[in-house]
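Researcher: Please predict.
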Amino acid sequence: SQAALAHITSRFPGRVSAHKGNSLLTVPAAAGRLPAPCDLVVIDGRHEFEAVVHDFISLAALAAPSALYLFDDICDHTRCEDWAEGNAIHMGGPTLALCELRRAGLLALLNTSFGGVRSWVLATVNQSADLASIRREIGRTGRLRLPCASDAPRCMMRWSRRAAQTVWAGSEAPFGDRARRAQQRMSMGPACRLEAELPQLRRQPRQQQHHRLPM
């Protein structure tokens, strides 16, 4: 916002460059123009699941290996606080995205502040995370897929109030439906799909086993 830009500019005169527009476009375009890698990355843009993931991947390319990442509008995905009569629903997309980034082994959480109007998470990139291969895949196919982490618990949004859970899952709030579809599209690699199919194969009746093709 303009107020935030004015505040930051007053604190760091001559050191702030503002770029207006869609961060999915402006951030990649800034590559190569920064005087030095970023030490602090604040992710507080659009709240769709895919926007948060794309912003992280793009900003990480401009950041130092030891950079800190501050994600705003994040709640505890196991019992997200519902404050102000359901106005916390906007946290669902960013929270689900952060959970998947951590589940994929890309982020390590350093500190959390849940509850109230300001809810955030401070994180750092795992040194073993191969973000370069993810960016190469984007350049090659135009698609972003997070690494599969089938051994980690699946990320699902759970709200502290039943009404909020209903809004998140119901047709009156397609935001939740869109987030889940994006989560499935971006976080389920081939290995995860295979893992999901194995229990179904095990439950098949024994007589169906005779119809397998020879190896």
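Model: The longest helix spans residues 174-187.
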